[in-house]
Amino acid sequence: MNRREFVGYFGGAATVAALTMTSQLAFGSSGVSMEFPWQIGPFERPAGGQPILRPNRKETFRDPIIHQLVHWEYTHAFNPAAIAWRGKLYVLYRAEDTTGHGVGQYTSRVGLAESSDGKHFSALPHPVLYPEPGRWEKYEWPGGCEDPRIVQSEDGTFVLAFTMWNRKVARLGVATSKDLLHWQHHGPVFRTAYGGRFESEWSKSGAIVTRKSGEQIVAARVAGKYWMYWHTDRQTALAYSHDLINWTPVLDRAGKPLFVLPKNSPGHFDSLLTESGPPALLTEAGIVFFYNGMSDGRITAGPRIPAQRYSAGQALFAGDDPARLLQRPQRPFFWPQEPWEKTGQYKYGTTFIEGLAWYQDKWFLFYGGADTDVGMAVAKAN
Q1: pLDDT at residue 10 greater than cutoff 90
Q2: Three-state SS for 370?
Q3: pLDDT class for 382, splitting at 50, 70, 90?
Q4: pLDDT tens per residue across span 345-380
Q5: N or C: which end of the chain has fewer CB atoms below 10 A?
């Protein structure tokens, strides 16, 4: 297949990933601290700090709904999922066409890129996940398929949580695949829960709890169930499933979604919003939850994050209870530093994390820079 090539080179000293409670890390520019030795990182950007994927104005795709050629990744390529498989590193990224103006007003499709060394990436000329005519069209058209997060099931099936966006209501959806190229859509994940009560409620950003199994990141069962952190009302909620396709929100005593990681108090990097990042990771210390936070601009400690800018945090939940928060560091571990991260389609700037993969004995973190480009950072394990 025809592919286009991207290059990202890494330089500098090796970094260290903290995976056990005995790891020792000094606080640095990454925000990782010895006070929270369960955190993964610090993460290092490529030398030069450039994106690994950018929009492409040449490629076209015949849309199955309007039956016309569209420049499917002309304006923006961002918010990526990532997974290692069969010796390669794969990135599934959100791409936007030319149909709209403003954040959320384009049609989004999901593209696929791969790498054999974690530095050079080649992307397919066509999307692999996109709105199609049929049962789910009303949920995905005209806004499209957005912001993927990927895991594997125990039998090797790929499970992709993504946002179905019809430009009216965002709904968390799921699709499955055996080869990363051909995907079966299963519709909104909350469609059948509580008699369909949540089918038309705003939901997005599904981060399934996983475990590391060799080089694979596999969906993990806790207390016999799969668990997923998700986003609604600017905060993080929780859901469970028995099959990774149909999910049930965990409710509080008032019958509303239980917020397990609410917005922080004023003056913190996550005081305006908390939103799930890559799939959460079950470790010996507990469940490491990666998330995106929005600042109110009144930061009193740590990096000075301007108002409405996104940066990334890690929180620790109990390994036997995904709803029980154990620790929540008050500083981000990753935030916008490069010019292309500080402004773009989203003018306030983001390092919006969505992908985490274990590849060649390193952790690879993938993120969207200001809703425009795809970035990557790496942490080595000791």
Answers
A1: no
A2: coil
A3: low
A4: 999 999 999 999 999 999 999 999 999 999 999 998
A5: N
Q: What gap in Å lies between CA 274 and CA 129, rounded to an integer? A: 26
Distance CA(87)–CA(49), nearest Å, equals 25
* pLDDT greater than 80 at residue 20: no
Written as one letter, the residue type at 87 is G
**Token digits of residue 246:** 């149909």
Residue 6 has pLDDT above 70, yes or no: no
At 196, give phi and psi (nearest 5°): 85, 15
Dist CA 108 CA 99 (whole Å): 10
Tokens (6 digits) for 124: 């397919």
Residue 58 phi/psi, 5-degree rounding, is -95, -40
What are the structural domains, with CATH classification, of the chain? 4-380 (2.115.10.20)
Two structure tokens written together for 245: 């396709």
CA triple 276-321-331, angle to 5 deg: 45
CB contact at 8 A, 273 and 235: yes
Q: Look at residues 363, 342, 339, 362 and name the one whose alpha carbon lies nearest to residue 352.
A: 342
**pLDDT tens digits for 35-45?**
899 999 999 99
Phi and psi at residue 112, to the nearest 5°: -130, 130
Assigned token pair, 129: 């996940």
CA 17, 150, 158: angle at the middle one, nearest 5?
120
Strands (E), 97-241: 108-115, 120-123, 144-152, 158-165, 170-177, 184-188, 204-208, 210-213, 216-219, 221-222, 225-232, 235-241
Q: What is the pLDDT of residue 13?
A: 28
What is the C-alpha to C-alpha distance for residues 73 and 95, in angstroms, rounded to an integer? 5
Task: Give φ, ψ of 211 to 5 degrees.
Answer: -135, 155
Decide if 196 contacts 176 (C-beta within 8 A).
no
Are 364 and 357 in contact, with CB atoms under 8 Å apart? yes
